[in-house]
């Protein structure tokens, strides 16, 4: 898998970051960038990022060997020829993406995955009316993707399942953590979750409840430390003896009141809690709960040690 060619279209910061991700995993990578000045800057940026990763002990192999897998192209058909996956990284404008994907559809084979880095434009809009629509999906990364491995795969209703499966294999093989968004929603998963926190943070400042720094402190020194290695469902599951069903019984009414206060009525209904509990128990049987709580505490110790000031 790592020998298959990857093409990155667009040599901005996200394009360079994706080139690093795939080259680090052993793929030959072609980066298409039409502007000569930008092409000249890419090599220096890539070298600097690789050097920083090496200094942090986050590289296997040498930065020189990884950088050597990346070639810069000024010709789009040459860049994407023979690619297993094309990662689009152009500006967030629908008309630009539609024109580009029309060209990509003509320049690539029928099994090439066409992936958009878009954070807001769904694949159904990008691929509307295109013959290659069944090969197009959104592959939205965290930023920067060489440090945040999650990537959201959001297919359109006409994207072939085999294309989604191929994308999943390629990203997972490159060390990323792909998740599949079951249906198109604005913001996908990353920005909807991030947006929920930001909406409440803004509201708390507006209502005079806390300062910007106080809210950032709660996130940085509280929620963020746990969320560095586990998500909100596992956090709630491990916070209450008896697991997530017990947590929902004890805390659900309070969270419902908080939602109503913000004009949002999304109660945790019994059926919803049952489904969440079913999924959590499939991941962690209750008889293993104590061991997982001990694991959580060890992870928090590691985070605390990593964040200790250098002069402590």
From TrEMBL:
Residues 5-183 form the 3-hydroxyacyl-CoA dehydrogenase NAD binding domain. It comes from the Bacteria. Coiled coil: none annotated. Keywords: Cytoplasm, NAD, Oxidoreductase, Phosphoprotein. InterPro entries: 3-OHacyl-CoA_DH (IPR022694), 3-OHacyl-CoA_DH_CS (IPR006180), 3-OHacyl-CoA_DH_NAD-bd (IPR006176), 3HC_DH_C (IPR006108), 6-PGluconate_DH-like_C_sf (IPR008927), 6PGD_dom2 (IPR013328), NAD(P)-bd_dom_sf (IPR036291). Pathway: Lipid metabolism; butanoate metabolism. It is an enzyme of class 1 (oxidoreductase). It is found in: Cytoplasm. GO terms for molecular function: (3S)-3-hydroxyacyl-CoA dehydrogenase (NAD+) activity. Residues 187-251 form the 3-hydroxyacyl-CoA dehydrogenase C-terminal domain. Its EC number is 1.1.1.45. The keyword Disulfide bond does not apply. Homodimer. Belongs to the 3-hydroxyacyl-CoA dehydrogenase family. This is L-gulonate 3-dehydrogenase.
